[in-house]
TrEMBL record:
This is Phosphoribosylamine--glycine ligase. It catalyses: 5-phospho-beta-D-ribosylamine + glycine + ATP = N(1)-(5-phospho-beta-D-ribosyl)glycinamide + ADP + phosphate + H(+). Residues 107-316 form the ATP-grasp domain. It comes from the Bacteria. The keyword Mitochondrion does not apply. Belongs to the GARS family. Its cofactor is Mn(2+); Mg(2+). GO terms for molecular function: ATP binding; metal ion binding; phosphoribosylamine-glycine ligase activity. One of its GO terms (biological process) is purine nucleobase biosynthetic process. Pfam families: GARS_A, GARS_C, GARS_N. Keywords: ATP-binding, Ligase, Manganese, Metal-binding, Nucleotide-binding, Purine biosynthesis.
Length: 423
């Protein structure tokens, strides 16, 4: 098979790694890709939002399967465009990708179908939002409705911060049109867990659990980022939690989307909060998490192509997902100053040390090749992932492997997976 992957980050590198393991695949292309993905795929200089060019390329190359990794092209309707051209494509159509594309939509869906989530209100008028906040309980959470690279969520400790948050999202438009509508919701406390799942429109099969670290600094301080590291599985995701989520969250979400005339095929990422009252949905994403994919996919035993085709064909019920009985930890190496301001273009040393190292991976997020050398090209540069027999061993292995890599202004959190030690 000829496969085209759309995207350029660590998630797409993890997808490319999984696809390359399949004996059913002969050629892999990635648009636009990065320096790490180039090891498995031929990178093509077409942006993820250049739909017409992507469709033309896929048609000319007679691509058998297109995998859309990123949220923007999914929400924008790339799957629909590819399907119109007769190209089998993995990911939700535009009318289903709204599950991530609009937080107001997903909150309303959960309310309508009694899926547990935080209490909330939606606002399109900043003045009304400010009036609502006058009598609200703090802390409180403000969310830009649309896509904001994982950064459009503000946790406000008091009324003053909340007023400033409304200004940031709705008036200053820090997150662009994503802030045209805003969700204000109750602040939930508990452990966060990420559960990725494959969906074929009717059947849902969950992958192994994971936990992300969103904040830029140690101890969950600093600004929200796209994710500074993750571990899998989560020791807090017990059999009891899983059983509750299957009954009240996972299948009900798939059924709700079908009932709304928006059947979902692809990956649903459930961001969960394990509260004192039970698990609740923090957010939905309509694709693999980044960096969650970097710890979940290396542990998956199935042939990625088999699973993807089952999702497209509606035969997921005939397939059993299998994961290794071990653990994985990913530590993101970022450019110092991320997510605000940082320099790029620094040469990266030590990448070759991962070659032939079983259980160690270096997923590229923001890299490019320049004059024959791989250099930094983003805020999040690399995702250093390692397996171990348990989480503590995987964590020690991942941090050991971060020392193999050197580049100017390298920054990472030192406490990824520290919650493991407290479990």
């Amino acid at each position: 098979m000829k496969v085209l992957i759309v995207g350029s980050g660590g998630r797409e590198h993890a997808i490319a790694y999984s696809v390359a393991k399949s004996e059913r695949v002969s050629e892999i292309y990635c648009a636009p890709g990065n320096a790490g993905i180039a090891e498995y795929a031929q990178c093509v200089e077409i942006g993820a939002m250049e739909f017409e060019k992507l469709v033309t390329f896929a048609t000319e190359k007679e691509i058998d399967l297109c995998i859309v990794g990123m949220d923007d092209p999914l929400v924008g309707g790339l799957v629909d465009e590819m399907e119109k051209a007769g190209i089998r494509t993995f990911g939700p159509r535009k009318n289903a990708a709204i599950l991530e594309g609009s937080k107001a939509f997903s909150k309303n869906l959960m309310k309508k179908y009694h899926i547990p989530t935080a209490a909330y209100e939606n606002f399109t008028d900043p003045e009304k939002a400010l009036v609502y906040l006058e009598t609200a309980k703090f802390p409180i959470v403000l969310k830009a409705d649309g896509l904001a690279l994982g950064k459009g969520v503000l946790i406000c400790q008091n009324l003053e911060e909340a007023k400033e948050g409304v200004k940031t999202i709705m008036l200053d438009k820090k997150f662009g049109t994503a802030g045209n509508e805003m969700v204000i919701e109750e602040f939930m406390t508990g452990r966060e867990v990420s559960v990725l799942s494959f969906v074929d429109g009717k059947t849902i099969k969950t992958m192994t659990s994971a936990q992300d670290h969103k904040r830029a600094g140690d101890g969950d301080t600093g600004l929200n980022t796209g994710g500074m590291g993750t571990f899998s599985p989560s020791p807090f995701y017990t059999k009891e939690v899983e059983a509750f989520c299957e009954k009240y969250i996972y299948q009900p979400t798939v059924d709700a989307m079908a009932a709304e005339g928006r059947p979902f095929k692809g990956v649903i990422f459930f961001g969960l909060m394990l509260t004192a009252e039970g698990p609740k949905v923090l957010e939905y994403n309509a694709r693999f998490g980044d960096p969650e994919a970097q710890v979940v996919l290396p542990r998956m035993k199935n042939d990625m192509i088999d699973v993807i085709e089952a999702c497209i064909d509606g035969t997921l019920n005939k397939l059993e997902l299998q994961f290794e009985d071990n653990a994985a930890v990913c530590v993101v190496l970022a450019s110092d100053g991320y997510p605000v301001k940082y320099e790029k273009g620094f040469p990266i040393e030590g990448l070759e040390k991962f070659k032939g190292q079983d259980g160690y991976y270096c997923f590229h997020a923001g890299t490019k090749k320049e004059n024959g050398k791989i250099v930094t090209n983003g805020g999040r540069v690399l995702g250093v992932t390692a397996k171990g027999k348990d989480l503590k061993e995987a964590r020690a292995n991942a941090y050991k492997a971060t020392e193999w890599i050197q580049f100017d202004n390298k920054y990472m959190r030192q406490d990824i997976g520290k919650a493991i030690d407290e479990a």
